[in-house]
Amino acid sequence: MRPLIVVLLAVLFTSACVPASRPVVAPPVDAAATIAAATLSAMPSSTPARPYPTYTPYPTIDLAGLFCEYEFCIGHPKNFPFFDIQVVNSLAGRSEYAQGNLIGFNNQLYIFLLWSQYSGTFDPKAALNFTLGQDQPSPLILTENMFGRSVTYVTLEATPSDLLPFGLAAVWKCGDRWFGWKTYSAQQNEPLNLLWEALKRFDCQE
DSSP alpha helices (H): ranges in 83-200? Predict the structure, then answer.
């Protein structure tokens, strides 16, 4: 089993040597991984993801919450706040318009959100690879129009825990920034449903 902290660091850390033309995201702090590890410390090892999910217009979780900061808004499940990973450790400062990382989690769901400014042409495959980190994607990568926005996404072959066996990673652009989203869930269709519903309320003031 891959240690959970490796999974978290793979999603949220980036090298200072990434070229300017590739996605650059502010590195998170170790405290976030510690918090997440405590939540999943009793969970067993990973299992392969199930067949590719299909979107249904009724999410399994009510996305009544709305995160609005850094000049964008995005929906999230009610009573499921996002934490700015840069703020977890006061020495790290905070996320900003140009780049940042958020995390939300409980024992049924994990959501990671990152964003970064980019120059030149947006490359969704490069952004998706960056968002995936060391997670193994399924062979099928899809691009769909979600509420007028082109979104590239893929399910995950394995997740950090048997209790959260279904995973999905996605990327899209808005204005001069790209956004990366990764979800681990206990229910098969939930990651894709959550993505659709989150983007239904997404706005980056472009």
Answer: 85-88, 124-132, 190-200
